[in-house]
Design goal:
Strands 1-3-2 form a 3-stranded antiparallel sheet. It has one domain. It is built from 3 helices and 3 strands. By secondary structure, the chain is an alpha+beta fold. A hairpin with a 2-residue loop joins β2 and β3.
Length: 64
Amino acid sequence: MQHRLLPETGFLRLPQVLSLYPVSKSTWWAGVKAGRYPAPVKLGERCTAWRAEDVRALIDGASA
């Protein structure tokens, strides 16, 4: 199951998120903008990531 690959806490970069929740980059960003997917966290000027807890909640909600 995908949860084994997902850490309990921490941050995931976009390629990691998309390997767990397989949609295209453009679909992901459109979903973030629309509020369907979790908002990113800026970890620096050029580093965007998502909280593992938020991605886990998204996956759990999709499988329910």
